[in-house]
Amino acid sequence: MTHTRIRKFNTAETYPEQNLDNDLCQAVVTNASDKIVWLRGQCPQNLDNAINIRSHDPIEQTHKVMQNIKQLIEEAGGDMSHLVKVVVYITDVRHREVVYRTMGEYIKGVYPVSTGLVVQALARPEWLVEIDGTAVIPA
Question: Which site from 12, 34, 61, 119 is most exposed, i.e. has the minimal number of CB atoms within 10 Å?
């Protein structure tokens, strides 16, 4: 079964003043018999040893976060097309465009629902971005 994506849109149209190109939607409908993968908020660190990447660049941090998300979904038996929801936490609103552009490289054609928040801080001061997600892998 494929997921039903309701009201697909691209952020280039929703936020024309920003240089974005993310495929998102307003809602995703899944089958209850499918496998649901609830992802912990992913940070710019290695999954195997929890060591932070050395970069303080929001683009590089977002790449690592999205690579972690992709890896975890694949370890659960799925792929990025099964991602149905992301919640993006950033510590500086000025990083929003580069974080979302970078995230968009991983979700092109996927259309998950998305919520974005600007927060005062994350668990470690060097972290600029954290993204959690939910994937639903068809039975």
Answer: 119
Q: How many structural domains compose the chain?
A: 1
Tell me the backbone φ, ψ of residue 27, rounded to 5 degrees. -155, 150
What is the predicted pLDDT for the residue at 122? 96
Per-residue pLDDT tens over the stretch 82-117: 999 999 999 999 999 999 999 999 999 999 999 999
What range does the domain containing 70 cover? 4-137
The DSSP secondary structure of 37-77, one letter per residue, reads EEPPPB-SB-TTT-PBPS---HHHHHHHHHHHHHHHHHHTT
Read off the pLDDT of residues 30-78 as tens digits, 9 standing for 90 and up. 777 888 998 989 999 999 988 999 999 999 999 999 999 999 999 999 9
Tell me the CA distances in angstroms from 16 to 10, 13, 48, 139, one per residue in order: 10, 5, 39, 38
Q: Give me the CATH number covering residue 120.
A: 3.30.1330.40
